[in-house]
What we know:
One of its GO terms (biological process) is cell division. By secondary structure, the chain is of the alpha/beta class.
Amino acid sequence: MIRFDRVSKSYPGGNQALSEVSFELEPAEFVYLTGHSGAGKSTLLKLIAMLERPTRGQVLFGGRNLAKVSKWGIPYHRRKVGLIFQDHKLLQDRTVFDNVALPLVISGMGHREIRRRVQAALDQVDLLHKEKALPIALSGGEQQRVGIARAVVGRPPMLVADEPTGNLDPALSREILGLFERFQQVGVTVMVASHDHRLIRETGRRVLTLEQGQMIAPELHD
Ligand SMILES: Nc1ncnc2c1ncn2[C@@H]1O[C@H](COP(=O)(O)OP(=O)(O)OP(=O)(O)O)[C@@H](O)[C@H]1O
C-alpha cells in the first residue's frame, strides 16, 4: 500500500527532518509511528498526504510513485488519505454535519449523496444524534470523533492520524484507537503517530520508531 524508499526530507533553512527512511505497509495494515518530539513523525505523515514532498528518495502509494503526481494531481491524491489531527481542526461556526460534509462539498458531490455519506460516517463514530450541534457543544472525545468522521467520509483507503489521542484521557484514547481498528477491519490501512508508549504497547501492534529522522530497526528497541 505504502512504500518509502530511502526517503529524506530537509526543510528550507537546513533542518533535516528525515534521513534515508525505508519501510513498507501492506494494505489494511495498522501501524504506530513513534519517536521523540522533533523525530520527524509529522513530516513522515505529511509526505504520505503530499502536504510536503521528499528532498530525496521515493514514496510509493498503491504502487504509484508520488514524485510523478503533478501539482494538479495533489487534490486527487489527498482524497485517498484521511487525515486526523490532535486538535481536530474543526470549523467552530459550522455544525457537526457541515464539518463532516466539507470534503464532499469541495469534491462537488450532489446533496443527496452527501447527506447519505455524512450520516453513514457519523453513525460509524456514534455521533448521528449530534449532527446539528456546533463543535463547541461537544466534549474533546466527541470532537475527535467528528474529525475521524470527516476523515473517513470520502472512504479513503488510508487513514493517517497525528497524535489523535494527545488531549484525551486513557479511556477516551482507547475508544478512539478502537475506532481506528474498526476501520482497519474493513480494509483501511491505518498509521497513527503517537507518543503514548503505554497505550501502544497495550495494543500489541506493529510499531515504527523514528529517532532524529532515522527509522530504528525494530530489534534495537523494546
Ligand atoms: N515547516 C518546517 N520548516 C522547517 N523545519 C521544520 C518544519 N516542520 C518541521 N520542521 C523540523 O523538522 C524536524 C521534525 O519535525 P516533525 O514535526 O516532523 O517532528 P515530530 O516527530 O512530529 O515532532 P512532535 O512530536 O513534536 O510533533 C524538527 O526539527 C522540526 O523543527
